[in-house]
Amino acid sequence: MSARKRTVIWVLMALVLSGGVWLYWFVRSHGFSAREKPTRLEAFLAQHARRVATPPGARGLKNPFEPTPLNIAEARDHFADHCAICHANNGSGKTQINSGLYPPAPDMRERGTQELTDGEIFYIIKNGIRFTGMPGWGGEDEENWNLVLFIRHLPKLTPQEIEFMKEINGLEKEGGNADSSASAHEDGQRPGH
After folding, report:
1. Same domain, 52 and 122
2. What is the DSSP string of 165-184?
3. Under 8 Å CB-to-CB from 16, ≥6 apart: which residues?
4. Which of 86, 107, 111, 118 has the smallest C-beta neighbourhood within 10 Å, fewest atoms?
5. 22: containing domain
């Protein structure tokens, strides 16, 4: 083996060893609390893992439905009933449940979500994201595509639409928190996404 190859191997081993030491120190000093904000490295890795986990064919899918008032309204009601418990009525993710998730659900109005392709959002709704609180819901394709339309609409929600959503789910606070969310779990209802 040449001296250059041995040097490369020693450098790689040193990097792996130092990374392992750093990980051990980090876990021992910080633990794995779901209440801490993800580090930049964790957020970077999660974002790229989500991209890798989404099949290339799904990324290129285009929403076959138009954002008509009826499609948006139906998706708004579905979102209020099934998704807002974690994502909040306004998509901010500021809910009691989300405050304990790691990684937390993102603010769906911001670039990180809005820049995903229609196919990526559709795939996430239908199949979920492993190792997060986002389950795969399956469901009818038309419902899921309409939810994609609504997620695109979140940055433009009106106060009237928020009021409609509150009527459906009873989430009173601005972000979508509710003391009543605990009673839904006690009644055996499955929380939404």
Report:
1. yes
2. HHHHH---STTS--TTHHHH
3. none
4. 111
5. 1-31
**For residue 32, what pLDDT is reported?**
63
Q: Is residue 191 part of a domain?
A: no
Hey, CA dihedral for 118, 165, 155, 52, is it positive or negative? negative
Asked if the bond preceding 103 is cis, omega within 30° of 0, the reply is yes
Same structural domain, 143 and 61: yes
Which among 87, 88, 91 has a CA at the least distance from the CA of 173?
A: 88
Do 139 and 164 lie in one domain? The reply is yes
From the list 129, 122, 127, 123, the residue with the least C-alpha distance to 105 is: 129
Query: Which of the 8 DSSP states describes residue 36?
Result: S
Per-residue pLDDT band at 39 (split at 50, 70, 90): confident
* Assessment of whether the complete model's pTM goes beyond 0.85: no
DSSP assigned state of 132: S
Please give the pLDDT value at position 193: 46
Return the SS3 of 133. Answer: coil
